[in-house]
Description:
The chain is 17% helix and 44% strand. The protein is α+β, with helices and mostly antiparallel strands.
Amino acid sequence: MPNPTFRFTHYDLKEQPAGAIIEVTLSAVNNVRLMTATNFQRFKETLDFKYIGGVAKKSPIRLTIPEAAHWHLIVDMEGHHGLADSSVRMIASPARQQRQQKAS
């Protein structure tokens, strides 16, 4: 069971290709952390972990997947007043971007 002392929402993004773009919508300022499966495990164990993202002061925000891997997204309230309502959607994948460029 996750161990962090603050509340968070977890999204399992499964395997994603490098260059895929995700869009995160928030109802309030919160932390948005994109991390690999290994780092998510470290997060749950309250060990040091690496992530992409940080404090999201505006919504929506977009993050680009840097490498092909199994990815997790955490929205958390650490340092903020409460846990924001959130949603995540894939807005682009490298294959889709290439098709759009060829069509123009």
